[in-house]
Structure formats: C-alpha cells, structure tokens
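>> received
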Amino acid sequence: MTELAKRTCPQILLIAPTLLGEALAAQLNGSKLNIEVSLHTEELSRHPSLVIWSLETLESPKTIQIELRRLKKSWKPSPILLLLPEKIRLTTNELLEFESTGLLQAPDFSTLNKAITTLIKGGRIVSLRNNNTLSPSTNQSTMGLSQWLLLSGLQQINKNLEEINFLLE
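>> returned
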C-alpha cells in the first residue's frame, strides 16, 4: 500500500488475543477492503474508523459492559464491533444489552468483511447463531423483524431510563 493510500484508508483498532489478532490483522490488511488494521494504539496515526474487540469468553457480562463503555468513551465516535465466540451461555437479550454498534458470533471472513464495510459507512450489524445461545423462552412465538426491532428498542429505552433514575437517586 502506498503512503498516500495509507493516509486516506480507514484505520481499524483490533483488540484480540495475540495469535488470533495477528492472524486476523494479516488477513484484513491483505483483503480488498483497503483498510489498515492495527493491534496497538501506538500504531494508529489518527482516530480509528472502527474498533473491533474479539472476546474469548463471556463469563462476566457486567465486566464486558464496563469495558465497552470505556472503549466508547476513549474512541468516540468510532463504532465498536464485538466478535463473540461460537459457544456462549448468554441469552439473545443479554447479548443485545451490550452497548456496541455490531455483534458477530463466530463470523466467517466474508461476513466480517461485510460487517466492517457496513459499520464504517455508519450502519449497524447483528449476526447471532440461535442454536448456540440459550433462548429466553421456548413459549414465545416467532417475531417478525419489525416487532423485534420495536421490542429491542423499547427494552433499550427502559434500560436507559433505569440508569438515569439510578444516577438521579
């Protein structure tokens, strides 16, 4: 990549375990996306266009939420993409409570590329595998996308109201 291309292409900060991070950074830097992936903040020449955080485990959701808030504060307005492991023990609702712009569970490289493009352009993405998560209730009927979006939006509003009330008290 030429020096001019490096200065104009989006930079991505990748937070991941060492071996996975190095392999993923090499793949993404070599892809057709025309992006520059850095594993360390010192390697960034400007504010990243996207922060990708790859999680090995979801044992402590509250800790993840706290760290997500720190990342959002440090790298605002950069979107944050969470890469989740294939096997998880959280419900879909618990995963959707994570305050990130994107959630991908065990994505393949093509899905990751599409997600990066979508997030850099200002979109959002959620791709979870239902067969590996615990469903919130087996008695619920299947919802359409619009119903699900409305319900998740209302749940987020209620959560935000609870946080505001807590801060006010």
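>> DSSP finds six helices and six strands in the chain.
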